[in-house]
Amino acid sequence: MKKLILVFLFFLALWFSFAQDEKLCGVDNYIIDWYANVKKDQFVEYSIKTLDGNKPLFLKSVTYRFFDKDKLLDVSNTESYATYFESLGAKKLQVDFVDGNWCKYKLSKDINVYKKLIVYIWNAMDEFELWFDENFLKHSVLFDKIILDSEHDSSENLILLMSDSAGYLKSADKIIISSQVYDRIFDVFHKLIKSNLIDFSNKNIYLVANDNKVFLKRILTKYLKPFKNPNIFVVEKTYLLNFLSNLSFDKTEFDNKMVYNVSLDSESQQKYYFFSRVIDYLIYQWMSVNLISFLLVLSISILIISFLRQFVWFSVFGVFYPLMFSISLLLAGIKLSLVLLVIAFVSTFVTKLFVKKIYLLHNAKIALLMIFYVCLLLLFIWLERYLWWNLIDFQMFDNMFMIFPLIFVAIIWDKIFSEWFRLFSFWSLFSLIEFLFVSFISYFLINRSALRHMMIAYPEIVLLVFVLNLIVWRFTGLQVLEYFRFIPLIRKQFEEE
């Protein structure tokens, strides 16, 4: 009986061993990694990778065979296979290898070699899938598309996306960018150039846009300075379909209305405008375009706040406080900023109850308020994570500058409460609503890209804003809301007269 049990256990172990080997030696464990479509004379290096994109730790033997149709051109026993494609048409790469588990594999990859390569960076639109691809194939043009998921992709995602297509970007005859985030794309290109992943020397880059030409020139001056003399063209957005159609028929000349060249010479324009010259110089010296446009738009935001405060008589608790809250909305987002405002409100309420029992000096009250604010903020973050409310994107806290909106809201609420604010008072709550209304107007102005583009293109608008501010602050008559407030007295005055 014991012998039968031992024989059974032996065959069971043998079966389990074969099952494990069969699982380890699955045919879908590996792939031949890198491009299936390439341009003639493009350098490509193929290698064996696992399905998750990692190279195997150890290969006992590898043999690559490269075929042009059915003709064997090359045999290599290296771990990776690098080659230039010297002729057009269909190729095949075949690899036989044994991995660390002594599993034998035989993989193949079909490769198509094209005469020209065009890289098209875009936000997905279905109408371009209809017939352009067929025309490109007929004329041996590889039309590679880099599709952006959304206009709000992070820079990290853009870098990964462009890095994966670095080989195509290097060899491209033309690079077409059809996206509203082209400034961020150029910024990613600049980082890839510094990493020696891409060389844009004498590249033909086509930017699909209908923005202000002066703004475009300044953006391109900022980001294309290290590109080593690229040829920059702008394609009018209304002619995009015609432009792609001409490219699909391998045309090289275009109507000037459709495509025009952009000069990056900072001395060729705006010779008589001091502010424009200053902006051109700062951009050329690598100052952030976003920061410059943000500072310029702040002047308009301050004008609107001043107008609503002085002319309409909104209670906005000064000029800086709604401006600070609008910046908090921009940095932290609307949801988190409103949550912070509620936390600050609760912290102030708790502080007031505490101070009723124990007398404290003003600075001690502020210190106590900040302690309650920080504790309640941490408690909310824990609850948000524990209960999955999804009100906060925790990735934003990777940026240390997020401390500023957190502090801004505490300062703002202390200002609102310290003057005459009374909890649960109608007029106090009405003033708070006015404050939020003005802050949101300021936020939408700051966040509006068209306004920022206009201020970058025509910075002399700041002079007009300055004059309008003087006019607003010299106004000494009745404000708009005062007419409603004093309307009984005004009626009585008219009746007496």
Strand content: 15-25%
Q: Give the spatial strand order of the biggest sheet.
A: 10-9-11-12-13-14
Radius of gyration: 33 Å
Unreliable stretches: 16-23
What is the terminal-to-terminal distance? 125 Å
Overall pLDDT level: 78
Question: What class do helices, strands and sheet pairing give?
Answer: alpha/beta
Broad shape: flat
The DSSP helix count reads 18
Number of E-state strands: 14
Blueprint (SSEs and pairs):
Elements: H1 2-24, E1 30-33, E2 37-39, E3 43-50, E4 59-68, E5 71-76, E6 80-84, E7 89-99, E8 104-114, E9 116-123, H2 132-138, E10 141-148, H3 155-164, H4 166-171, E11 174-178, H5 182-194, E12 204-209, H6 213-223, E13 231-236, H7 240-248, E14 259-261, H8 274-284, H9 289-312, H10 320-332, H11 334-357, H12 362-387, H13 403-419, H14 426-447, H15 449-457, H16 461-473, H17 480-485, H18 487-496
Parallel strand pairs: 2-8, 9-10, 9-11, 11-12, 12-13
Antiparallel strand pairs: 1-3, 3-6, 4-5, 4-7, 7-8, 13-14
Offer a concise description of the structure.
The chain is of the alpha/beta class and 497 residues long. It is 51% helix and 19% strand.
